[in-house]
Design a protein that fits this description.
- The complex is a heterodimer of chains A (about 600) and B (about 200).
- Chain A is of the alpha/beta class and about 600 residues long.
- Chain A contains 19 helices and 21 strands.
- The model of chain A has no long low-confidence stretch (mean pLDDT about 95).
- Chain B has one domain: 3-Layer(aba) Sandwich (Pyruvate-ferredoxin Oxidoreductase, domain 3).
- Chain B contains eight helices and six strands.
- In chain B, strands 2-3-1-4-5-6 form a six-stranded mixed beta sheet, with helices on both faces.
- Chain B is globular, with a radius of gyration of 16 Å.
- The chains are: A alpha/beta (about 600), B alpha/beta (about 200).
Chain lengths: ~600, ~200
């Protein structure tokens, strides 16, 4: 099973009763799998901070709880995690962070291991699916034994790889709910924060003693001339490249077993620390006074690979009589295939409206602050719509900040572009802030009724839960009104004329103007398909207007007009029949197939 | 059945059934009592991106990821993807290419040119290419959606797994209503090379 499925299985076997999280690649499948085990209450919370709070509540109630997110989510979730880590748990609590190393589906990459230090929490790092399951189960036992939440960190190569996993039975465990009058949870008259903080260090020392003898930190003796300290997927790569070496394989990467590491180092001639991203193990090991090589040999950013290790250890490999072939380069004729926006996507229609506005207001500079979702693709060519997109909900507030420092005659018009799930996640306080502080921006909320980028997860606006229960969907319009929005329009982006007019009105309005563009995602919850459109060859002048929607169904045909211009064509297989291109064609050359 | 470790790369474009095909091969290796690891690219699969699935099986597998020059077999659902991943083939490896072209938007919008004669390019490098017109055969069988299992049938000729295991893996992983058609497609694909 996938690493993510294995974590879900581990949570099930450990008797977890509540699981919460927010979708984010590469973590999403964990909660989706957990939700399938009927015995576990599961929810997509509105954001990661809320998800952690929910799991804390369950832990205080005496049950084991799981909370999942991607690396960027940990930044959002960190606020409640710091105090609860020091106060401790009741039922076992495990936070899973899946790091998107290489930023395959993220605006940034980051090494969340560093958080373990800040949180004063122990961290386990599985290196394959079996460990992902086993470590999850172990994390619950240890969380209760040491009275601390546990951090389980994976990377995309572990989360999205399949491996063989052996199952065990589910074991239910429920502790008595917490005592309101017990000392642990009373900040006033309870334990002083400084004492709590100090206790955090003492607790780590106790966990370190456990780390010295746990089986998940193990030495695999090989040739003692070369020794490798490693963890996670890096261990798997290193083990394959240097099968003859001695290994200290760390399953718990915080706190580190200093005696075990010193013992290993003392028997090894050349010691290497092999890890991805930050020199997290390395800095701690060097602080123990141990000489080792590591980060100076490798890049700090991006994912590690066997290829990179072979390069680093080419001398060693030669000495050990191993042959390294030169990898064959890709064929030069290959062209790239980037992921695209879908045919009929509402974002393409809205982008087109913004593009036309830019053309109309040539003397002005229309700046669009983007956000996190499918529409982040709008930063790149050929769309070039969004100025930037960096964090959930940040588009609205950064547009507001920019608005405050720009002079009235700056010629800049400020827009922000955000999807429904992201708006509910972190856009609400941003919008409230912009309104209260009298901003002059236009906020486009592109409501496609799902969390599309991560594969169509439910959220508070969809009317369903992850476990398929029906809920009252949040009314975005009413929500905006209650935040104080006075200039509010709702448009159908497929109706180009109305959407364009609404956009013109919004940017002319002096104040915060909100434009909600409603159209369901064409992929989720179900694939949408209407009768496709076609291009009338006799009418098409080859003007290329329809090509500027950048809809993947609209293609350049091999037919030319009399004037020698290539005509457009529509791929009827992928066209979903949204009609948008037919509305903007100046020669009325696009019609629905009858 | 003891055999040395094998690396199989299954590549295609999102929506072509690459993930299903790779799941079936993974299951077949698992049912045969081997250690198996598979890595798949998520996130791109729904949006017409390039989708590579790495499958490695044998007595003990560490890394789930195949490197250039290591694949014993490549199954390409699409011609451009065959070309993109062909350098992953080890000397003497085989590549099964489904004769289908899916143009990236950069080609349909006229910015790029789809490489011509991909199979010829590969053959020029002395690569053992097996061309299959999967769509044509699948339509003959009755449904273009069975290309995936048809191609697995072709692939099965190069792997030492019993037919019984293939059939039971397909039965397990294909939705019930399409099961018989997929089993038929697998058999047809298997026969294709013997003709």
């Amino acid at each position: 099973m996938l690493g993510n499925e294995a974590i879900a299985r581990g949570a099930y076997e450990a008797g977890v009763r509540l699981a919460s999280g927010y979708p984010g690649t590469p973590s999403t499948e964990i909660l989706e799998e957990v939700a399938k085990y009927g015995d576990i209450y599961t929810e997509w919370s509105v954001n990661e901070k809320v998800a952690v709070d929910v799991a804390i509540g369950a832990s205080l109630g005496g049950v084991r709880s799981l909370v999942t997110m991607k690396h960027a989510g940990v930044n959002v979730a960190s606020d409640p995690f710091v105090p609860i880590s020091l106060m401790g748990v009741n039922g076992g609590l495990v936070l899973v962070s899946s790091d998107d190393i290489g930023a395959v589906s993220s605006p940034t990459e980051q090494d969340t291991r560093i958080y373990a230090k800040l949180f004063h929490v122990p961290m386990l790092e599985p290196s394959d699916s079996q460990e992902a399951k086993d470590f999850t189960v172990l994390a619950y036992t240890l969380s209760e034994r040491f009275d601390v939440p546990f951090f389980l960190r994976t990377t995309n190569a572990v989360s999205h790889s399949k491996g063989v996993v052996r199952f065990s039975q589910r074991k239910e465990k429920v502790l008595p709910p917490f005592d309101r009058l017990g000392p642990k949870f009373r900040p006033q008259g309870g334990i002083h924060p400084i004492v709590l903080h100090q206790n955090g260090f003492e607790r780590l020392k106790r966990i370190e003693r456990y780390a010295e003898k746990t089986r998940i930190n193990r030495i695999e003796w090989g040739d003692r001339k070369i020794g490798i300290v490693s963890s996670g997927i890096a261990y798997q790569y290193a083990k394959e490249v240097l099968p003859f070496a001695s290994f200290l394989k760390l399953g718990m990467t915080y706190p580190l077993p200093s005696d075990l590491i010193k013992l290993f180092a003392s028997k090894i001639k050349e010691l290497y620390i092999i890890e991805e991203m930050e020199p997290f193990l390395e800095e701690q090991i060097r602080a123990m006074g141990i000489k080792a090589k590591g980060s100076e040999l490798r890049p700090h950013a991006g994912s590690l690979s066997r290829e990179k290790l072979m390069e680093i250890f080419s001398g060693t490999l030669k000495r050990f009589g191993q042959k390294i072939g030169k990898p064959k380069p890709p064929f030069p004729q290959v062209i790239k295939r980037f992921p695209t926006m879908c045919s009929g996507c509402l974002h393409l229609a809205m982008y087109y409206a913004v593009r036309m506005l830019r053309q109309k207001m040539k003397d002005k500079d229309i700046v669009v602050m983007g956000d996190i979702g499918c529409y982040s693709l709008g930063i790149a060519a050929p769309h070039n719509i969004l100025g930037c997109a960096f964090a959930m909900g940040s588009g609205i507030s950064s547009a507001h900040g920019l608005n405050k420092v720009l002079k009235e005659n700056s010629g800049k018009i400020l827009l922000s572009y955000i999807g429904d799930s992201t708006f509910l996640h972190a856009g609400i306080p941003s919008l409230l802030n912009a309104i209260y502080n009298k901003s002059n921006i236009t906020v486009i909320i592109a409501d496609n009724g799902t969390t599309a980028m991560t594969g169509g997860q439910e959220h508070a606006g969809t009317g369903k839960t992850i476990q398929g229960e029906v809920r009252i969907p949040t009314n975005l319009k009413e929500l905006c009104r209650s935040l104080g929005v006075t200039d509010l329009q709702e448009v159908d982006p497929y109706d180009y004329k109305s959407a364009y007019e609404a956009l013109n009105h919004a940017v002319a309005f002096n104040g915060v103007s909100v434009l909600i563009a409603n159209r369901p995602c064409v992929l989720f919850p179900k694939k949408l398909k209407e009768t496709p459109f076609r291009v009338l060859q006799e009418e098409c002048t080859g003007c290329g207007r329809c090509m500027t929607i950048y809809c993947p169904s609209i293609i350049v045909s091999d037919k030319k007009t009399e004037k020698g211009k290539y005509q457009a064509a529509i791929d009827s297989y992928s066209c979903v029949g949204c009609s948008f291109c037919s509305q903007i064609c100046p020669s009325h050359a696009i019609v629905q197939i009858s | 059945m003891i055999q040395p470790s094998k690396n199989i790369l299954i590549v295609g474009v999102g929506g072509q059934g690459v993930i299903l095909a790779s799941n079936i091969v993974t299951e077949v290796a698992l049912m045969s009592g081997l250690d198996v690891k598979k890595n798949e690219a998520h996130g791109q699969s729904q949006r017409s991106g390039s989708v590579p699935c790495h499958i490695r099986y044998g007595k003990k597998i560490y890394s789930p990821i195949i490197l250039p020059g290591e694949a014993d077999l490549i199954l390409a659902f699409e011609e451009l993807e065959a070309l993109r991943w062909a350098n992953y083939l080890k000397p003497g490896g085989k590549i099964v290419v489904n004769k289908q072209r899916i143009y990236p938007p950069s080609v349909t919008s006229g910015m790029d040119k789809y490489p011509e004669e991909i199979v010829a390019i590969l053959k020029k490098e002395n690569i053992d290419v097996i061309e299959i017109d999967g769509m044509e055969h699948a339509e003959r069988i009755g449904n273009p959606l069975v290309v995936s299992t048809l191609l697995l049938g072709v692939l099965s000729n190069f792997l030492d797994f019993s037919e019984k295991i293939w059939v039971s893996a397909i039965t397990q992983l294909v939705p019930e209503k399409h099961r018989d058609l997929n089993l038929k497609a697998f058999q047809e694909g298997k026969k294709l090379l013997k003709v």
